[in-house]
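Weekly modeling sync, notes
Attendees: S.R. (lead), two postdocs, one rotation student

Agenda item 3: backlog of single-chain predictions. S.R. asked that every request posted to the team notebook include the full sequence so nobody has to chase files. The rotation student volunteered to paste the first one in as an example of the format we agreed on. Action items at the bottom.

Example entry:
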Amino acid sequence: MTSILIVSFGYLHCYQDRPPAADLTVDLRALLHNPQADPAFRHQTGLDPAVIATVMATPGAAGLIRHTTALAAELAATAAGQNRPAVSVAFGCAGGRHRSVVAANQTAAALLGGRHTVTVAHRDIYAPVVGG
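Predicted structure, as returned to the notebook:
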């Protein structure tokens, strides 16, 4: 069984030039609506239901999660054939508190119950709010 590690992070927290090492990195900054643009969401995180709903209401969000989930499962299957114990998927947004957290958790939820062990790590969820 191959493990899948899913990491969320913020590019503005020391990763601008070099995101965390991963088999697959998805840059969400231009793809999903940024809840931080609304002052009501600025200090919330991607664990809050209103933030999740806002991010997932972005046109194409569900498809992005579906395709990333399928690719992560395919990467894990390939890794298993190569006797690699794990693969990693990283989701990055500006601050690592909103979009990347939602995408990581949605992808993990879609992978649960499959043939893989799934672990999620949110590197910057409690880091200082950026740009505000």
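Discussion: group reviewed the output briefly. Residues 84 and 120 are 19 Å apart (CA to CA).
Action items: rotation student to repeat for the remaining queue; S.R. to check formatting next week.
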